[in-house]
Amino acid sequence: MISFTAILRGIFMKKRVISVFIIFCLIITGINSGLLLYLPAFGADDGSYSLYYNSKRISQRGYYINNTPYLPISLLGTYANNPGIIVDQGKKRLVINLSSQNIMMADDATTNFVKTYAGNVYIPLREIEKELYFPLNTTEQFFKLSYTVSDDSIKMRAYSGTDKIAKINESNVQGISSLLDGQGATVNMSLNDTVFITGETDNYYKLSSEDGGTVYVMKDYVTISEIDLAKIDFYAPKKSKFKRGSEKINLAWEYVGSVTPSAPAIKHNGLDILSPTWFDLITDGDGSVENNGDKGYTTSAHSKGYMVWATITNNMSTKGSTAFTTKTFNNSGLLNKSVAQYIFYSCLYDVDGINIDYEDVADGDAAGLVSFTALMRNYTEKQGLVLSIDTLIPRPWTIEYDRASLSKYVDYLVVMTYDEHYGGSPAAGSIASLPWVEDAIKATLKDVPASKLLMGIPLYTRVWTVDSTGKVISNPSAKMPAVRSTVASKNLTPVWRDKEKQYYVEYASGANMSKIWIEDTRSISNRLNLVSQYNLAGSACWQFGQGEDRIWDVFDGMLKKNEPMSNYENSY
Fold this sequence. Notes:
Elements: H1 4-11, H2 16-33, E1 49-53, E2 56-65, E3 68-72, E4 85-88, E5 93-97, E6 103-104, H3 108-117, E7 120-124, E8 126-128, E9 131-135, H4 136-143, E10 145-149, E11 153-158, E12 164-168, E13 173-176, E14 186-189, E15 194-200, E16 204-208, E17 214-218, E18 222-224, E19 234-235, E20 249-254, E21 273-281, E22 289-291, H5 295-304, E23 307-313, H6 321-329, H7 332-348, E24 353-357, H8 366-383, E25 386-391, H9 403-409, E26 412-415, H10 434-445, E27 453-458, E28 460-466, E29 472-474, E30 477-479, H11 480-489, E31 495-497, E32 502-509, E33 512-518, H12 521-533, E34 538-542, H13 551-560
Parallel strand pairs: 1-11, 6-19, 20-21, 20-34, 21-23, 23-24, 24-25, 25-26, 26-27, 27-34
Antiparallel strand pairs: 1-2, 2-3, 3-9, 4-5, 5-7, 8-9, 10-11, 12-15, 12-18, 13-14, 15-16, 16-17, 21-22, 28-29, 28-30, 28-33, 31-32, 32-33
Helix pairs in contact: 3-7, 7-8, 12-13
């Protein structure tokens, strides 16, 4: 008997045209005879996932990256259909005109505001192997597709107008395929999974799974939608807004370029809130907002027990941002559009709050910043979102922040107590010496209630290289692990400076000298002592990716467990 492999070997010895013809014939024969069972399935080893629609497998394949399912844009118009959504392949985005969509926010006022002013919003596409893919978790409602993800497949189901649509309301819920003793297999379900209720018993809802099977889940774990989602393009009900009790809270910003990093793999007890820098006012635009959101990040963070507050900025690092911020504050069309888009995007990515980080604002725009914040507050309250704002330390040159007025419209005000010595400083020094930080806290408390104040904490420092005259040659920022590595590799002995409340090292760099005021567990424990001393609401760290894992134990000990600073004196 001639093997299938031997036949192929003989074919490839023939001329190319004949080879193609014979291979084609073999493929047809193989399909009929079952020989192709021995051929590897296309895409099986490239990390892609099989796709199913209403229990039937389709030819395209998808991906699942950082809790987000991605589907090829070739599905648009067939399996994923919404005539009001267009593909902008040049800019790699889905464009949605919200005025033409049937959306429903927390109340009529917010719905009308968003529909009237938001205009065109967009959802970024992801390029994988030179093809564009759209995120299904972000577009699920617009395309009326629920889904589940297994080890190797993404199963979609079209919303039905007859079955009740609901969501799983807790993490790690277990359903069962049959209520008959011994006949039911366990089915794992995740927080916020969309499910379809087809029946019920006294204690269970009967759900239809994506593959056409049946799952029974205890009623306590299922929340039925208030509306028929099959008739709505986007629904954002009011959230249950976080209200702090007597506990101290800690936030960490997460810097995002165009791609959001993975959310922390574990829950750090000393960290409550993640604040990715997702939404930026487009400088010299029409009031539109740049969107770098990632719903998979929110889902992952929520599953670990974190809150997510999206940071919005006025693109302060972009040339012309100060002038355009002024223009926006003084133009109701631009202002309303930006606020409407901030609110919509925050709901689209299921965040729990919004953090305003408007910097390089003109001195004359203090009232404009307050009015902008008040307008944001009107709609964040309606949606059940926490609102916070970041401010520089009180100084004559930071009068753009009317802290007393701003504090009336926000739940929390962050004072960014770092960059005492910054990138452009003429002399080397600490990023945030303790006396400098304490003075800033005292000054801020003259205008802001302690119950609303979060103290900024740097998780970075600078490596200052100076010449023999003390002139700064360079001062790149450095993460905590990098500094620890430098100390170890150069066999340095850090010296504690009691004035700054920081360790200090210096070492020769050729003819120059390098100096580091170190941020570590001990320096941060001294800062956190101020949170307790002045009974502040908590702290806010710039930024998550720059810290050591061990640092979160200090926040847990000092903010949550009232441990003494002496527990953290031996960091080196």
